[in-house]
Amino acid sequence: MTSPRRHFAGCLLVVLLALAVVPKANAIPAFARKYGLRCSACHETWPILNNFGLKFRDNGYQLMNDRDAPIWQNPSYWPVTFRITPIWHRVSANTEVDTYTGVTAAAPYGASAVKSVESSGFDLSGLDFHTGGTLEKNISFYVLPSSDPTAAFHFETVMARFDNILGTSWLNLKMGRFELNNLLSEKRMVGLTAQGGIYQTYHYIPVGDANIFGQMGDNQLGLEYLGHSYNDRTRVSASLLSSNDGNVNLIMGSNSYSTFLTFDQGIDTGKLGVQRIGAYYWGGEAATYYRTSAGVAIPGSGIGNKGFYRVGFTGQLYLGPHFDLNVVTQHGSDNAWFGQGYGNAVNTNGNGATTCTAGIAPLTTSGCLPNNTPGTVLPVGSRAAIWNGYTFEARYVFNPQMIFIAHYDAERMSQQANGPGYTGLGPTGIAGPSPSSLGNINLWDVLFRYNPFMSSRAGMAIQPEFTVFQQTGTGPTNPVTGLGTTEHSSELLIALDFAF
Amino acid sequence: MKTHYREKFLALAAAVALVGAATVILNRKVSAAGEGSITGTVKLSGTAPRMKPIDMSKDPYCVKQHADNPATLENVVVGSSGGIKNVVLYISEGLTGNEASAVSSEEPSFDQKGCMYIPHVLALNPEQKFKVVTSDQTGHNIHPLPAPGGGNIGWNKSQPPGAPPIETSWKAQEVSISVKCNIHPWMHGWHAVVKGPYAVTDDNGSYTIKGVPAGSYTVTAWQEEYGPQTQKVTVAAGQAGQADFTFKAK
Amino acid sequence: MRKESIPVSALIGVIAVIALSIASRAQVTTVQEQQWLNSPAATSHVHGLTGDAQRAAMNYRRYCVGCHGDLGDGNGEVAPWLDPTVSPGNFRPRDFTLGVFKCRSTPTGTLPTDEDLFDTIGRGLDRSNMPIWNQLTNQERADLVAWVKHYSPRWQSEKPGTPIQIPPEPQITPDRVKAGQDVFNRVQCWKCHGVQGMANGPSASTLQDDLGRTIAPYNFTAGDRPKCGKTDADLYKIFMTGLDGTPMPSFVDNIKPDEAWDLVFYLRSLEHPNKNNAKEHEIARQLGLKPVNPNP
User: Fold this and answer.
1) Which residue out of C100, C154, C206 would a mutagenesis test of the B interface target, given it has the greatest number of B Cβ atoms within 10 Å?
2) Structural domain includes residue A346
3) Residue pair A438/A472 in contact by the 8 Å Cβ criterion
4) Do the domain assignments include residue C189?
5) N or C: which end of chain B has fewer CB within 10 A?
6) Nearest Cα to B221, choosing from B146, B145, B123, B119?
7) Is C13 part of any domain?
8) Is there a contact between A46 and A499 (Cβ–Cβ < 8 Å)?
């Protein structure tokens, strides 16, 4: 962006912010309308839940005051909230660009150079319709049709839940497609940039790995048991999920299930607040082969299940009412077959391409995936992909309408899928074992979110955000060494987030 | 001839002494109290509003108590000569500090009888003890509602049949504290807490405030519907000052 | 590689927002309130903790101000929208400036103890819009008690009442349940609560609270817990201290402490059966207890 345009955008920001100093008004989306509570009662900042909101959700969106069933509500109450987020952003990434100098027959567009490519402009973040609450006392539901920026809709959440079965808070059963029971939930992230709007730890897949399952940030299909103590200090959950990353129509395969177990305990530390420490385990299997028909993988025919797991600790540490630090650690492992690109019928090639040419050696960029041919053996030197990830999110709450968040993700491979002895082409087109740091990620994200008003009828937030993302080995190839360089991208974003 | 001067002198001396003693005695009485009074009548000009009969069907006991003589609301009770009953008279200006803080030693009763409060308006000094009693065989609750922030705090106590009296007092001046029974919603009375001497008008609208030292005062008459009215009055020692009031019917 | 840089004006904008927003933080709204906030009354002592009102300011703004208002007078932003038709008498938030509270262990007309307020915050008020704030730490609750106290001038000059003495709870026996029914009849609870405790007594329909708003008596057969907690001792305190601000009086002058437990047991037998009142229901069934007949 040229200098004058930058100044314009900056000045626009200042004007918007100056207009934003409006005293608090009244209103409540959905739940606030029902109960008369402000958004900040349940949300540290919408949509992040605080301890009270977590208890409300764990009770099945009920305050447990015998006024939760829909018959007690004013007939004009309608449990729907909309969320739209128009944004302006500028994205910059290093990429190979053809330079049109030194044109030769071999290089008809000239030598490639690595340049930082920038694009900017106004954009959309998609549209969410939230509707949820109670169907009856102790029966809850949540439906969230969500569209991407192109208005392609899918069901982000569709679930029903039986709460307080047999009168105890230790028995709750949820079924459908739902948000996983993560203390630090990606569905409630405030970040809006492409890389900063997800927790890298929840989505990390080693380069070349075809196991799209194990992504803790996504909503999953299955059955969840949740138990919690009366004041929600102790929480335990066990879910049975299909290995399809929440995709419907059984496209992935049969008999591929995983289990997701969580536990967390809140500890009362007086003036500091409640400290939560927890742990989680996600283990399961997913298919690595698909039967074929005329050479094309048949969705839903998955066989050759192989295992994977993710395990780690979580922490939600409060230092007084203003500051809290959230930590998630992960030790992840995918079976060697996944590391070699097996599995994932959605991606028939496993390497990212969606077609293959018969006769070309397997595991080349356009060769047919061995996942279409059962009986294939793993190449020499293949190993399980193992990594460790860490997410830190620090939040400073100036007041319930103003929050500052800084978020850092680190992913570090400890064992690459293509180990010593491997002779084939790696996922980045380089032959031989993968460099030990291939796929490592660093992400920094800072944002500031201000709600000029936040009442029980609607809310609005202004959010400037800046993200820097680095991944080792996935950047443009260094022509001298033949190795991938570090992919580097950054994004500056200003959003106006509306919920009503 | 001898005159009976000695006898005459003695008789005269005795008479003088007697008169003098009487005067002294009488004067002592008057000067010891130094007190006069304020008296008068409170009348209503215009047509008296009709007081509606009370539907006591919520409680058959109450209905039975009034079988011969149905009860009516008591907001404005006007006698045959046009005098208003239950008007509180008190001295709002002119009392010295000591006079204003004197607390009457009487301990009046506030009775619940026939599901009505008797008296309908009770006048009291701050800190003056009074008793809440019940003469009814049906349960009541006694629930005074003083204005918030005025120094008097409300309370709410039950008085089932046969309950012992509640002895209590009010801390601060307040004209007036609304008293009600939640069980019998028509029951409504007033406690007018005033400093200094006071009186409440009778069936004829007449009153006498006793024990008023000589001086100039402002007297206030307060009626629950029509509010307060003031008048200046001067009381000579041992005499009765006159203050008549007229409220206009709405 | 070109170094990334943030537009300077955008940075200024962000700083401006921070500055403006800090300036708009909730402040105490009157001079007098500020004085009370700094007074000794704005502390609490409960469960061995000392609560400080200033520490509670952020939590009050987050959780409470929407209903109870900046001035603590129950006129929060959502108060006008709370629906009065849903549960009469249970919709308005408490006005702290009056110093009048329902759930106390102290006699009618007196201030509650710090522990009474602490318990109300952590317990919520059933069938009302007051949530159960038991996720707050004890210290946070103690601080909020201190904050609540700074709103009313009564705490500046008055001490809380002396909590009533509650004798230890005796065993539930048929004699006691029957005696409890006699108390229910003698002090005429049925006038408002109805002979079966269904809030349909002859005086129920005209009840008004201290501010003249329609209010309903407790319906023993509905809901899970009475207003001030679900233990037997909580029920004991309700009729032995009265619910100030409402038509429910204190019966402490008319019911002896031992008789009060009898009444508690009888009241439990009127409730919808649950695991807490199983014994009382069993006894009532065995005795063949019928509702009292006020007009024999």
Assistant:
1) C206
2) no
3) yes
4) yes
5) N
6) B123
7) no
8) yes
Taken in order C152, C154, C159, C164, the sign of the CA dihedral is negative
**What value of ipTM does the predicted structure carry?**
0.85
Scored b (16 or more CB within 10 A) or e, C94-111 reads bbbbbbbbbbbbbbbbbb
Could you tell me if B112 and B133 are in contact, meaning their C-beta atoms sit under 8 angstroms apart?
A: yes
Least confident span in A212-216, A442-446, C23-27: C23-27
Q: Are B65 and B115 in contact (CB under 8 A)?
A: yes
| Shortest Cα distance, chain A CAs vs residue C134, angstroms | 6
Identify all chain C residues contacting B161, using CB atoms and an 8 Å cutoff: 186
pTM of the model: 0.84
- Shared domain check, C251 and C202: yes
Domain B35-248: which CATH number of 3.40.50.10260, 2.60.40.420, 2.10.109.10, 3.60.21.10: 2.60.40.420
- Return the structure tokens found at A109: 């567009």
- Whether residue C206 is contained in a domain is answered as yes
Pairwise CB contact (< 8 Å): C192 & B183: yes
**Which distant-in-sequence residues (6+ apart) come within 8 Å of A261 by Cβ?**
A237, A238, A239, A280, A281, A282
B157 and C249 within 8 Å at the Cβ level: the answer is yes
A11: nearest CB among C9, C77, C86: C9
- Per-residue model confidence as pLDDT tens digits over A130-180: 888 888 889 999 999 999 888 889 899 999 999 999 989 999 999 999 999
* Same domain for C153 and C181: no
Number of structural domains (chain C) is 2
Instruction: Please say whether the beta carbons of B182 and B141 come within 8 A.
Output: yes
CA distance A172 to C20: 44
Residue scoring higher pLDDT (C3 or B66): B66
Q: Are residues C216 and C150 in the same domain?
A: no
Q: How far apart are CA A467 and CA B48, in angstroms?
A: 82
